[in-house]
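Each record in this resource describes a single protein on a pair of labelled lines. An example record follows, reproduced without changes.
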Amino acid sequence: MLPALPVLLPLLGAGATVVVGRWAWAQRVIGVTVLAAVSVVAAVLLVMADRGGPVVAEIGGWAAPVGIVLVADRLSALLLLISTVVTLAVLVYAIDQRIADYGRRTASTTFHPIFLVLSAGVSLAYLTGDLFSLFVAFEIMLAASYVLITRRTDARRIRSGMTYVIISLTSSLLFLTTVALVYAATGTVNLADLAERVAALPTGLQTVLALLVLVTFGIKAAIVPLHFWLPDSYPNAPAPVTALFAGLLTKVGIYALLRTRTLIFPEGHPSVLLLVLASVTMIVGVLGALAQNDLNRILSFLLVSHIGFMIFGLAVTDAAGAGGTALYVVHHITVQATLFLVSGLITRRTGTVSIDAMGGLAKRAPLLAVLFAIPALTLAGVPPTSGFVAKLALLQAGAGDGVATSVVAGIVILASLLTLYAVVRVWVRVFWGEPREPLPDNDPDDDLVVGTARTATPMYVATAALVAVSLTIAAAAGPLSAVTTRAGDDLVARTPYLGAVLGQEGAR
């Protein structure tokens, strides 16, 4: 039952934080302890899956395909581990931000329970072995994220939150319809069972179901042209919430696409549609970033752009493409969350999100300059960062897989250069020049305290910890690449997953 713990522990912890809601210190201890425990469980699952194959838990004692199963293979365990580590760092940041703003004794009736519920939803999405439970996981994440994005906020943020929830509900309705159609056509929603039954369907029906899955998860992953909700929603949330959403939620959509594409709808050749979507997403996202003056909107558009890098890996149908995508997701979860945490520190210091109104921070806050520079260069893929390692894996996968993938590989390089220009532009305007006085906080009652140097040291420590994780990914590029390569082999072969879930007879 080890795969069930990453889901159960956060849910139990959420209930416990409600019970001890009057004592802020108890809520904080429970939250940090639960996420630390889940990190340990995820690390154990990764070791077990890498050494002995997927780890399966049959919920209620019912075997697949009838019962609900949780499956931890190399891919899901690796993403669970990095996601939980990032979630833990963001929680530490959020705790100390609240202490700095409201004092140590001020408890929260909603933040800690909802934060842990969101973590449980993410864990379930990675581990579930059937489509309907994946739908439930997305609904858990939607409910929790809507509460987090609209806590203690103003009308403008509530409007942005409504855009987010309306688009998410539309995607969920489409997802539920897709699940119903899949069940009607095959009589099952178990992913391993679908791998065999979908192959027996007429080609036209397979294509329709595959397109429905692409649109459903494409909305959640913010693939262009389904991305418009993200730049209007994420920048308006408090820094810890934005960092958590940017680091995790879109990547869960990418994971779902990777899992369903390799397991249920495998193709023997590169997907032209995905190559086109990858190219458009990369270019539209980075050009959108270059047109912005708001620091959070710049980072949001760069997030969209780099979703295109992962879609490029999905378009390449071989094991190298799947492994490269997995490696890029691991890198991007860390670096994107880090950049939004740094953005929160910058906003607290300057009192504005407008990069034109900033300047001279390198003189006043040199540590902040370092904390921004490292993840920014990592996002751009400058050697020898983890971004360079991940992009190199994608380029190696795509460059030798035909003319179309070689052309898109060139677009990957172009988008990387434009990303570098975008982050250098931010660096010049925010950190160079003469220091400026911080702008006053125009709404001191909201959840965003700005225009003050009153930043708790643990907020810097949490951000620096994520920077260290990114540097560790680069330093351990060899072993990590080996794990993602083996994960890619398993995804394309499918037999390890089918054999673990359905038994050896299902691995034919």
Observations:
- The first helix runs from residue 5 to 19.
- Residues 2-507 form one domain.
- The chain has one domain: 2-507.
- Strands lie at 55-58, 69-72.
